[in-house]
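Researcher: Checking consistency across runs. Here is Iodothyronine deiodinase again:
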Amino acid sequence: MGLPQPGLWLKRLWVLLEVAVHVVVGKVLLILFPDRVKRNILAMGEKTGMTRNPHFSHDNWIPTFFSTQYFWFVLKVRWQRLEDTTELGGLAPNCPVVHLSGQRCNIWEFMQG
């Protein structure tokens, strides 16, 4: 609940548009210039160490970029980040926490006890 509802929905709409454009442009580039996009994705994978994993072949995971599943995953993560942030003077996000006993609750519930 950190952001006011109108602000949250406007930001969600903006993120939806950003992710949609990103996926569409990426998909078009992947179709038009597959070798160049593959080199760029592999270069990004080198930075993260993803390409050094012997269990992953680039032929298996490069086609998943810019797919429908990719779109929904990125959208979900970006929307979650909106809810996990707050503005100066605003309410803190109601993040999940775990008691030392292992019991799970949200931070606002934790602060009440």
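Researcher: Does this match what you'd expect to see?
Model: One thing to look at in this run: The two ends are 20 Å apart (CA to CA).
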